[in-house]
Design brief:
The structure holds 2 protein chains of 2 kinds. Helices cover 55% and strands 19% of the residues of chain A. Chain A has helices spanning 3-56, 124-159, 161-172, 189-238, 245-275, 287-297, 299-304, 322-338, 387-398; strands at residues 68-74, 84-92, 97-110, 113-122, 283-286, 308-313, 317-320, 345-350, 354-360, 401-407, 410-416. In chain A, strand 10 (401-407) and strand 11 form a beta hairpin. The two termini of chain B are 24 Å apart. Chain B contains 8 helices and 14 strands. In chain B, helix 2 packs parallel to helix 3 and helix 6 (152-163) crosses helix 8 (191-205). In chain B, strands 2-1-3-6-7 form a 5-stranded parallel sheet, with helices on both faces. Chain B has a 4-stranded antiparallel sheet with strand order 8-9-10-11, covered by helices on one side. Chain B has a 3-stranded antiparallel sheet with strand order 12-14-13. In chain B, a hairpin with a 3-residue loop joins strand 13 (212-215) and strand 14. Classes of the chains: A alpha+beta, B alpha/beta. Chains A and B meet through helix 4, helix 5, helix 7 and helix 8 of A and helix 1, helix 7 and helix 8 of B.
Chain lengths: 420, 225
């Protein structure tokens, strides 16, 4: 729920209940007050009836008064001298219809006779008055509330505008990009504080990230020189004429390990380089030609493993960094060859927006998210575990969509060039 | 040939000079910018191996100096930084090639010889080895004057072995030379065997002696027994 609706919900519940309660109380008070007025009036009329009877010795006619109707009923004797006020309906002979009314009923002696006297006064006028009063008061109150609500809404929207902007900016913040977090302009203290906090965090994150990258880069670079020494010493050792079978095997293993270490280092450096966006020069690349070139380049590997290659390539060019795209095709193709079994097959399809590499493999379905993680590999793989991570990083850089699928014994890597 | 190795890492420069010395080659060594500066001023070299990061200066400054005093030494940069910008800068300053650490000594030697061949072009583009004749410009191989058809990769492989003759070349070095670093086929070292077998067969079929010798599964040597 949005902050505004949450706030609004509470506010409207309180306002509505308050309005109802106050309205009810107001109506009751007003009604009571009116009743009291009518009752006073009825009592005065009663006194008048008594006076009239006392002076003229006759009962006043039932409709002899202006706005009340008086009824007499002879009774045997006085039983209840209390004055009873109550609401009723009566037929207004002047207006000729039923109206709500209030009456005063009492028993008293008139001209020596006991009578039950009932004086009825119409409440109609007064009720109309109440209605008018309530309307006059209620309508402005409701209008006022509506205006308040509207103003509130606009104000809150405007007040939260910096917050929204801040949120958009936070979302747009990318640790990988050169662009720093964009602070917003606001006069509101709270947002200023939030802005500053986010700015500080973003700067810290950025510098930390940069440091880590720099560390990786430096560490890898520093390792290159000792690796070069090891490599050269191995080459020197290899020239020795006294090399036996056993030493040769040890040397071969050392070569393998050194080569793997070198590859690992190079891959890490490449990842940092892609992260740092150091490969930016773009050019038009004929993908079809590039794939054919790479197939030719790897053809001995393909032949040796007796792999069937089906290609279906449309002519299609993209504008991108050549090194990155070469790495992309290299990785895709070498993966398809390396993780295949002898006599397996590879299918490469290139259409105007998509490149798909399908290959049979020694393994079943791979974890579609994990395979792109750094150093994720199965125990049998002799690779660095960085090939697919590099692939993903390249696609990320170029805004390509990279999807892994497993379908009918085929591992399928598709790259969508127009994903964004 | 006479080489100067400007490299502060002693272990590396020792192995390089050990590999390069012999067969009429002489190696000189400079561990600092200052030493390099002096040696470059005093002597002429066929090729200078130049490390870019020296304890007391930038290798590129040495390269600039070399060009300033109009020396025609070939220059091969050896650097731990695989940076395109640096590569471009080095090459535009007049370096002949750029090799990234770590490298195989056989690769280094092949690059040096390629530089020297280019620098002293007259007649040197053809390499002779007994009955073998290799034209590095036309990429042609002849046995006793008869052309042998080799694929591009087979030719590269043969040339690689011939320029490193009498040296053992590891399978790793051979694979990297033919397929580069980005091949990422580290597990396919044994694969070079098939390739060498093909070259061998084509050469022996044309009447060439078999000069390839296997060294216990770790590498091969091209030598006249």
């Amino acid at each position: 729920m949005k902050l505004f609706s949450s706030y609004n919900r509470i506010l409207s519940i309180i306002t509505l209940t308050g309005l109802l309660v106050i309205g009810f109380l107001f109506y009751q008070t007003l009604g009571g007050y009116i009743n009291k007025q009518i009752d006073d009036h009825l009592f005065e009329e009663l006194l008048e009836v008594q006076d009239f009877a006392h002076v003229k010795n006759i009962l006043p006619s039932p409709d002899g008064f202006d706005d009340v109707v008086v009824e007499y009923k002879k009774i045997n004797k006085l039983q209840d001298k209390r004055r009873l006020f109550a609401d009723t309906n009566f037929y207004n002979p002047k207006k000729k219809h039923q109206e709500s009314a209030r009456y005063l009923k009492t028993e008293l002696i008139l001209n020596g006779q006991p009578y039950e006297v009932m004086i009825v006064a119409s409440k109609f006028e007064r009720q109309e008055q109440i209605k008018s009063i309530i309307l006059i008061i209620l309508i402005p109150v409701i209008v006022l509330l509506l205006i308040l609500w509207l103003v509130n809404r606009i104000l809150i929207k405007r007040m939260w505008l910096p917050f929204r902007q801040l949120l958009t900016n936070i979302k747009a913040f990318n640790i990988n990009q050169e662009k720093v977090f964009e602070p917003i302009q606001t006069n509101i203290e709270e947002f200023k504080a939030l802005n500053k906090a986010v700015l500080d965090v973003s700067l810290k994150v950025k510098s930390d990230y940069k440091e880590i990258k720099l560390f990786t880069e430096n560490a890898s670079h520093e390792m290159m020189t000792p690796l070069a020494v090891i490599n050269s010493k191995l080459d020197t050792l290899l020239q020795s004429n006294t090399l036996g079978k056993e030493q040769s095997e040890i040397l071969a293993d050392l070569y393998k390990a050194t080569s793997k270490l070198t590859k690992l280092n190079q891959s890490l450096l490449l990842l940092v380089k892609i992260d740092n966006n150091q490969l930016q020069d773009k050019e038009e690349i004929d993908l079809r030609a590039l794939i054919e070139e790479k197939l030719n380049y790897f053809q001995e590997f393909i032949q040796k493993r007796n792999l069937q290659v089906q290609i279906n390539l449309d002519t299609f060019s993209i504008t991108a960094n050549r090194s990155l795209i070469e790495i992309l095709i290299n990785n895709l193709l070498s993966n398809a060859i390396r993780h295949n079994y002898d006599g397996g097959s590879i299918r490469i399809t290139l259409t105007s927006d998509k490149l798909v590499f399908c290959n049979t493999g020694t393994q079943g379905k791979l974890h579609p998210a994990k395979i792109f993680e750094r150093f994720y590999k199965d125990n049998t793989s002799e690779g660095t575990g960085l090939g697919l991570a590099i692939l993903k990083q390249v696609c990320l850089r170029q805004n390509y969509e990279l999807i892994y699928n497993y379908h009918r014994d085929y591992h399928q890597f598709s790259i969508n060039f127009n994903s964004l | 040939m006479k080489f100067l190795i400007v490299e502060d890492e002693e272990g590396l420069s020792k192995s390089i000079s050990l590999y390069l010395t012999g067969e009429g080659n002489i190696c000189d060594h400079a561990a600092t910018y200052e030493q390099g500066y002096q040696k470059l001023s005093l002597y002429d070299y066929d090729c200078v191996l130049l490390d870019l990061t020296l304890p007391d200066g930038e290798g590129l400054q040495l390269l600039k100096y070399l060009k300033k005093i109009n020396k025609t030494d070939g220059v091969l940069i050896i650097s731990a930084r695989n940076s395109l910008d640096q590569k471009i800068e080095g090459l535009s300053l007049g370096a002949d090639d750029y090799l990234i650490k770590p490298f195989h000594l056989s690769e280094l030697y092949a690059r040096i010889q390629s530089i020297v061949r280019r620098r002293h072009f007259n007649g040197n583009s053809i390499i002779h080895f007994n009955e073998l004749e290799i034209d590095t410009t036309a990429k042609e191989t002849k046995v006793n004057g008869k052309t042998v058809h080799l694929t591009r990769k087979e030719f590269d492989l043969l040339l690689y072995f011939i320029v490193n003759k009498n040296k053992v070349i590891s399978k790793a070095a051979a694979v990297e030379h033919i397929w580069g670093d980005d091949a990422d086929m580290a597990d396919s070292f044994d694969f070079i065997y098939t390739h060498i077998k093909n070259v061998r067969k084509k050469l022996t079929d044309s009447g060439c002696k078999d000069y390839f010798q296997s060294v216990y599964g770790v590498g091969y040597k091209f030598a006249d027994v």
